[in-house]
């Protein structure tokens, strides 16, 4: 068996974008990505319905070695090529769907009202018509944070493909599951985009007053917030600090004991009530200690953590 272009190759970012800077090359990747298996030169050429084999061969050669492998005179996507096709098909680099603010069949765990959602720039933004906001700003908009409408509860990441063929309620559930998976990775110190290490930082509001929903000092309902940044790519996220414990055995075990599966929740309302409705207390500032108490029905779990979000005690 002979192989060409199957050795590990590395391209600079500029060279990678240059290699993809042709409609023909993107079409080649998409055809290989949607094929049932490797394609011979003639099969791939026919699928693209072209009339210039020399031009086709030129562009195919530019992809060979990094995005495309050649094995026994057949062509297949290499891993980087698969990632490009996945990004295209997810709509993340091509689509800009519209989902105006609309009600869902999911209910607010505090007020019982139907939650409302809208899709903005790769995120599902969630609102309750009667609740005080959890955050004063939305950080998911193009151009930076913008003032959020009343009742803003936060945003859940979801690629454009997540909207296809789904009702508003199904979109919300998909976004909640996608968000949980991302936060589990972040909690474990893993970037959900590129798999590199994530650095986590706790932001503590020293003058926290959130009696009316959002503290005027930190513009959040949470006194302790988590900000996570990838050490390799541009991924960053922020949330209530307790969500950074989602991968710990203490919190995961408690959730499963209460019949709650954070990976595929059958009852998103109840899961959100536990994970978003937790109580927090800053026990000491030097050394920093905070306690987060999660409640489900008549059961509760209190986790004491340090500034690195290490669990020091559980009760």
Automatic annotation (TrEMBL):
Annotated ranges, domain DUF7347: 13-88
SUPFAM superfamilies attached to this UniProt entry: Winged helix' DNA-binding domain (SSF46785)
Name of protein: Winged helix-turn-helix domain-containing protein
Gene source species: Halovenus salina
Pfam families: DUF7347 (PF24038), DUF7351 (PF24042)
Domain spans labelled DUF7351: 105-311
InterPro entries: ArsR-like_HTH, DUF7347, DUF7351, WH-like_DNA-bd_sf, WH_DNA-bd_sf
């Amino acid at each position: 068996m002979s192989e060409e272009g199957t050795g590990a190759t590395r391209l600079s970012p500029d060279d990678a974008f240059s290699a993809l800077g042709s409609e023909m090359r993107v079409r080649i990747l998409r055809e290989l990505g949607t094929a049932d298996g490797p394609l011979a030169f003639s099969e791939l050429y026919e699928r693209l319905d072209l009339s210039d084999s020399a031009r086709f061969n030129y562009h195919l050669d530019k992809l060979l070695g990094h995005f495309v492998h050649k094995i026994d005179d057949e062509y297949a996507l290499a891993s980087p090529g698969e990632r490009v096709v996945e990004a295209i098909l997810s709509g993340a680099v091509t689509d800009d769907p519209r989902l105006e603010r609309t009600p869902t069949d999911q209910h607010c765990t505090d007020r019982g009202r139907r939650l409302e959602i809208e899709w903005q720039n790769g995120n599902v933004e969630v609102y309750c018509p009667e609740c005080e906001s959890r955050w004063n700003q939305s950080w998911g908009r193009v151009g930076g944070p913008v003032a959020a409408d009343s009742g803003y509860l936060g945003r859940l990441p979801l690629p454009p493909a997540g909207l296809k063929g789904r009702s508003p309620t199904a979109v919300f559930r998909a976004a909640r599951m996608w968000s949980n998976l991302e936060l589990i990775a972040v909690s474990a110190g893993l970037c959900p985009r590129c798999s590199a290490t994530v650095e986590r930082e706790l932001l503590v509001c020293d003058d926290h007053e959130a009696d009316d929903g959002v503290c005027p000092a930190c513009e959040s309902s949470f006194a302790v917030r988590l900000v996570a940044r990838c050490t390799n790519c541009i991924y960053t996220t922020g949330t209530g600090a307790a969500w950074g414990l989602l991968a710990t055995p203490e919190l995961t075990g408690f959730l499963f004991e209460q019949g709650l599966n954070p990976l595929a929740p059958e009852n998103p309302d109840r899961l959100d009530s536990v994970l978003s409705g937790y109580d927090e207390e800053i026990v000491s500032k030097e050394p920093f200690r905070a306690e987060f108490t999660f409640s489900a029905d008549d059961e509760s779990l209190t986790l004491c953590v340090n500034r690195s979000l290490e669990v020091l005690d559980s009760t």
